[in-house]
Amino acid sequence: MIALITGATAGIGKATAEVFAKNGYNVIIAGRRKERLAEFSAHLKSTYSIDVLELNFDVRNLIEVEKAINSIPEDWKKINVLLNNAGLAAGLNTIQDGNTDDWERMIDTNVKGLLYMTRNIAPIMIKNGFGHIVNIGSIAGKEVYANGNVYCATKHAVDALSKAMRIDLLPHNIKVTAINPGMVETEFSIVRFNGDEERAKNVYKGLQPLSPEDIAETVFWVASRPAHVNINDIIIMPTVQANSTTSIRK
Ligand code: NDP
Ligand code: 8X3
Asked: Residue 244 falls within a domain, yes or no?
């Protein structure tokens, strides 16, 4: 069994690669930080005695995506699971104060990157006659919150695309699942606040957020249902978070 995971150098993607490896999958790990990929690959191989393929590219760059996918050796092409996870939030501003570079980065990664990956992997799955695409959306794709405007819009796009892909891929025996987490403590907030670790820590202060492992186990669970079962959509929240704007802090 083979799983291709984007954003496998940190957070949810990294934890998911670990869970799939632990369960005997060979994994294709993707990300921009080459050294992290190499280090993680060595860890997975030695810990779980599985095979690992590293793909070092930027999901925003269509040429790089095509080159990376075309480089996948024939015996790695029986891909059972594609996890479209690479993504980010950049900034937290009103629309009138928004930074247009941040907007481009979020739209290019969260929407276009997911599309480029899917456009290149879906035909391989169609040829194989099987496959499962799991998209990481967000609670921000189900509702909006103050200053979240463009990030929320990209995740609403992921929500729409997951529904649309499910229709298009239905005749090809390809499952599509969207997993929409609330707060997960990863490098997400550090990236959102441009490296400001103190501000990032405050996001999770006084509450227990989800861990990347919580999401990884959920991804593995949806991917390991029987052939006739598809989980369309999951919202998974920390117990102390009711929605994007309501949570309990100590
Ligand atoms: P992290 O910042 O910890 O991980 C993000 C991953 O995405 C990294 O591996 C990074 O790798 C990769 N990535 C980012 N940009 C690119 C790019 N242009 N090309 C290739 N890879 C890229 O964050 P999370 O694990 O939290 O985020 C994973 C997903 O989960 C995102 O889609 C996020 O929106 C979503 N999410 C997160 C939540 C949270 O609270 N943390 C809640 C709901 C959804 P590298 O930099 O090496 O390329
Ligand atoms: C990431 C979590 O709180 O920004 O999708 O919606 S949040």
From this structure: no
DSSP letters along the chain, please?
-EEEEESTTSHHHHHHHHHHHHTT-EEEEEES-HHHHHHHHHHHHHHH---EEEEE--TT-HHHHHHHHHTS-GGG----EEEE----------GGG--HHHHHHHIIIIIIIHHHHHHHHHHHHHHHT-EEEEEE--GGGTS--TT-HHHHHHHHHHHHHHHHHHHHHGGGTEEEEEEEES-B-SSHHHHHTTT-HHHHHHHTTTS--B-HHHHHHHHHHHHTS-TT----EEEE--TTEEETTEE---
How many whole angstroms from 7 Cα to the centroid of ligand 1? Answer: 6
Q: Quote the pTM value.
A: 0.98
CATH of the domain at 10: 3.40.50.720
> Is 246 part of a structural domain of the chain?
no
pLDDT tens, position by position, 75-96: 999 999 999 999 999 999 999 9
* Total domains present in the chain: 1
Q: Which residue has its alpha carbon closest to ligand 2 atom 6? A: 140
